Structure to design on (357 residues):
């Protein structure tokens, strides 16, 4: 059956890298016979300009009815102090699609380990995944108060919210090196005490997976001193936001890093919604329109979509091998120290794919 993919190109370099991702999708689909149609929808600043809001109802409707959503990037300097901002669309679509699990793989390509701010021997072989709870915690808790001399944010978690993200992390660890590091601040926070209790409870169903707990401050240090010890890190929304940005500098460029966000599976009890795939970087206004954006994070997001939403692990692996090969051969955009354009890197990935039997 034809799979419906909604694309949200957004702002800045968004349309350039979306174009690259779709070229690679087309090439791999020719190889594997993957049958799909694209429904491009306005989102972010591009949607504010036309519809006055970053997530118009028609975009949300299309996303809810899709089999998967691909997002490039949103945001532009002109909205910085605006009342309606592109970023509001991002929070809204995550909440509307119930995307509670944000997955960020952190890998360092051997040919690029010299780009990391850490010493080569510390980063060579890094391969871990951060699983961040995305729809609960302090970003959504009420009450929220801002007065001249007084402000309140509220951190709220239910055991169910913790249970489903912990289950996701243990299941993922089973497909990897079978180790989960759960991050909290249980020496201070009540929500973290509940977090730890629930994670330990869920662990009882996964005796084949090793569980360790880290306080968030300690985890932040280990990410720099010994990042290779991690396999799957699971944590709440705020800690995950900070730790995943810290981890994202390890590979040396934001332009290499894809992500996935999942809710309840489509077709599961209670309905379910499509997953959303996007690079972790923003709209890079400083290089927008120059044709030099690194398309690989977007291309690798397409690979994650094929594997995780459509179960096509062959297509995912093909794209990952193609990007590995292009990086090894030194066809690099300026963020990686090269001088290739977005189009040249994309062309090299497509050419590699087309050359495979
Ligand atoms: N998910 C999203 O869409 C998302 C995420 C983060 C920031 N933003 C928005 O993006 C805008 C710019 O934010 P920022 O500058 O802090 O972050 P950014 O990620 O856009 O850029 C940070 C730096 O990394 C570079 N960079 C990022 N992606 C690149 C790529 N693919 N290839 C080469 N270089 C790349 C940029 O040129 C810039 O120097 C803001 O409006 C921000 O709110 C959006």
């Amino acid at each position: 059956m034809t799979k419906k993919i909604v694309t949200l190109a957004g702002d800045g370099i968004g349309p350039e890298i979306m174009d690259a991702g779709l070229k690679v999708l087309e090439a791999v689909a020719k190889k594997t016979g993957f049958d799909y149609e694209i429904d491009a929808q306005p989102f972010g600043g591009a949607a504010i300009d036309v519809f006055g809001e970053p997530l118009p109802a028609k975009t949300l409707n299309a996303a809810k009815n899709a089999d998967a959503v691909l997002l490039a990037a949103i945001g532009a300097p002109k909205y910085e102090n605006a009342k309606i901002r592109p970023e509001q669309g991002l929070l809204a679509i995550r909440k509307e699609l119930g995307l509670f699990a944000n997955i960020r793989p952190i890998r360092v390509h051997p040919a690029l380990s010299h780009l990391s701010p850490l010493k080569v021997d510390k980063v060579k072989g890094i391969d871990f995944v951060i699983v961040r709870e995305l729809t609960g915690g302090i970003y959504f808790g009420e009450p929220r108060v801002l007065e001249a001399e007084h402000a309140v944010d509220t951190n709220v978690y239910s055991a169910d919210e913790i249970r489903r993200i912990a289950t996701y992390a243990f299941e993922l660890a089973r497909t990897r090196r079978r180790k989960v590091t759960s991050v909290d601040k249980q020496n201070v926070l009540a929500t973290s005490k509940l977090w730890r209790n629930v994670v330990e409870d869920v662990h009882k169903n996964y005796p084949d997976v090793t569980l360790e707990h880290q306080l968030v401050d300690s985890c932040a240090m280990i990410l720099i001193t010994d990042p290779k010890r991690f396999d799957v890190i699971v944590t709440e929304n705020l800690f995950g936001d900070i730790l995943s940005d810290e981890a994202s500098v390890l590979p040396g460029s934001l332009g290499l890093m894809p992500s996935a966000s999942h809710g309840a599976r489509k077709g599961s009890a209670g309905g379910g919604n499509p997953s959303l795939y996007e690079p972790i970087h923003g709209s890079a206004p400083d290089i927008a329109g120059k044709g030099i954006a690194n398309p690989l994070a977007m291309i690798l997001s397409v690979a994650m979509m094929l594997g995780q939403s459509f179960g096509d692990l062959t297509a995912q692996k093909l794209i990952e091998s193609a990007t590995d090969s292009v990086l090894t051969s030194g066809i690099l955009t300026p963020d990686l120290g090269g001088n290739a354009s977005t189009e040249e890197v994309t062309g090299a990935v497509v050419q590699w794919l087309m050359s495979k039997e």
User: Anything to note?
Assistant: Residues 127-249 form a domain with the Rossmann fold fold (CATH 3.40.50). The pocket of nicotinamide-adenine-dinucleotide is lined by residues 13, 73-76, 87, 90, 254-255, 278, 281-287, 293-294, 297, 333, 335 (CB under 6 Å). The longest helix spans residues 14-32. The longest strand covers residues 3-10.
